[in-house]
Amino acid sequence: MKLITTLFAGALLVGATAVMAGEMKMQGHDMKNMADPDSTTVRLRDEGTQKTCPVTGEAVDKSIYSDYQGKRIYFCCASCKTAFAKKPDMYLTKISDTGEKPALLALVPQKTCPVMGGAVDKNSYYDYNGMRIYVCCAGCIDPIKKDPEKYLKKLKEMGEKPERVK
Fold it and tell me: Strand order in 103-105's β-sheet?
C-alpha cells in the first residue's frame, strides 16, 4: 500500500511539473509577442476600429485577444486566437484589408533587443538623438549605428520605447 501511495504521489508530481512546464513555455511564447508580459498592466493607447475577427470575419468578442507588436487583436473565439498565433502577419494584413485597425497598446519601456530579439543588457546600448537603444550584446551595436531609425521603428512595432537620455 505504501508503494502504491508513493507511486501515485510521484505521478501527480510529474503531471503537475509537465503542466507547469507547458504553461511556462506558452507564457514565454506569448510574452515574446506581447507589448507587456503582464497583461493586467497593458493600457490601450486607442481603441482601434476592429470589429471583425481576422480569421473568420465574424464579430469579435473583446474578451478574446492577443497582444502582438504593440497591437491588440480581437477574435471571435479561442480557436481563432490559436490560428492567429501561427500566422500573425497574414492576419494583420487581413485586418488592414478590411479597413479596420487594431487597438494600439501604450508603449512600455524597452526590454527586448531590436536586433536579435533577446533580453537587453543595460550595459550595452547606443545613444541616438536623445534616446538610448539597449541591445543584448556589444555585437548588436554596429547594426543600430548603421540604421538607428530602422531599429527605433522596430521597437515601436514591438510596443516598446527607448529610454530618454538627458
Answer: 44-46, 103-105, 71-75, 61-68
Number of domains making up the chain: 3
Q: Which of these three, 57, 86, 106, is where a domain ends?
A: 106
Looking at the structure, tell me whether residues 26 and 45 fall in a common domain: no
Handedness of CA 128, 132, 137, 138 (dihedral sign): positive
- Grid coordinates representing 33 are 509577442
What is the Cα–Cα distance from 42 to 45, expressed in whole angstroms? 10
141 and 100 assigned to the same domain? no
State how far the Cα of 57 lies from the Cα of 59, in Å rounded to an integer.
Answer: 7
Q: pLDDT tens across 12-27, in order?
A: 444 444 444 443 333 3
Claim to verify: residue 47 and residue 84 sit in the same structural domain: yes
Q: Strand pairing partners for 66?
A: 73
pTM assigned to the model: 0.51
CA angle, 116 as apex, 22 and 130 as ends, to 5°?
125
Q: How does DSSP classify residue 57?
A: -
DSSP state of 158: T
Report pLDDT for 45: 79
